[in-house]
């Protein structure tokens, strides 16, 4: 058993090593992603917001202010549109997750396990109250009694059934049956 314990310890150690390696990998991936996002942000800002150069004359300053004001308005409209879209999407998400929750609540799937079940019980489960026919095959089997075996012996002694039929056919046969009291 010590060999088995060593094997288990080795497997556990290997699992722990793999777990820590995966965590380390995840941390480096997250760091890379954050750095890439920062670079993307800087590029976007550099493209959208060129460095400001202030002109000397008052008229040029007023023109610049008008341009900036117009830009601020257009950006604000975009921001508003994006916000509305986001709210709409969040609402849809909430509705869908509520639907999911409701469905999960209604149809809770039970843990299934194998069950030995008679044909009778299966029919009852499938058909419910409509199920009247008894399918318990063992109960429907006739019980063999001593008398039955004696009757069978008598029948065997009668011999070939064809001969028996021939004897009982026609008026002569009916007469014999009537006399025998069959």
Automatic annotation (TrEMBL):
GO molecular function: actin binding
Family matches, as InterPro entries: Troponin (IPR001978), Troponin_I (IPR050875), Troponin_sf (IPR038077)
Keyword Acetylation carried by entry: yes
Keywords (A to Z) from UniProt: Acetylation, Actin-binding, Coiled coil, Muscle protein
SUPFAM superfamilies (alphabetical): Troponin coil-coiled subunits
Coiled-coil parts of chain: 27-106
Biological processes annotated in GO: cardiac muscle contraction; skeletal muscle contraction
Gene Ontology terms: cellular component: troponin complex
UniProt key word Coiled coil: yes
One Pfam short name: Troponin
Purpose: Troponin I is the inhibitory subunit of troponin, the thin filament regulatory complex which confers calcium-sensitivity to striated muscle actomyosin ATPase activity.
UniProt record similarity statement: Belongs to the troponin I family.
Complex and partners: Binds to actin and tropomyosin.
Name listed for the protein in its UniProt record: Troponin I, fast skeletal muscle
Organism of origin: Himantopus himantopus
Annotated gene: Tnni2
């Amino acid at each position: 058993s010590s060999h088995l314990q060593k094997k288990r310890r080795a497997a556990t150690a290997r699992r722990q090593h793999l777990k820590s390696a995966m965590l380390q990998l995840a941390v480096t991936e997250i760091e890379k992603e954050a750095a890439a996002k920062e670079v993307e942000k800087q590029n976007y800002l550099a493209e959208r917001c060129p460095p400001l150069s202030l002109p000397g004359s008052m008229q040029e300053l007023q023109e610049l202010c008008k341009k900036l004001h117009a830009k601020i308005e257009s950006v604000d409209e975009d921001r508003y549109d994006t916000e509305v879209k986001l709210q709409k999407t969040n609402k849809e998400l909430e509705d869908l997750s509520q639907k999911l929750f409701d469905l999960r609540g209604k149809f809770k799937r039970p843990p299934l396990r194998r069950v030995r079940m008679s044909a009778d019980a299966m029919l009852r489960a499938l058909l419910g109250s409509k199920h009247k026919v008894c399918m318990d095959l063992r109960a429907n089997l006739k019980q063999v009694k001593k008398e039955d075996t004696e009757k069978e012996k008598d029948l065997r002694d009668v011999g070939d059934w064809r001969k028996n039929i021939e004897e009982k056919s026609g008026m002569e046969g009916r007469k014999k049956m009537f006399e025998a009291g069959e």
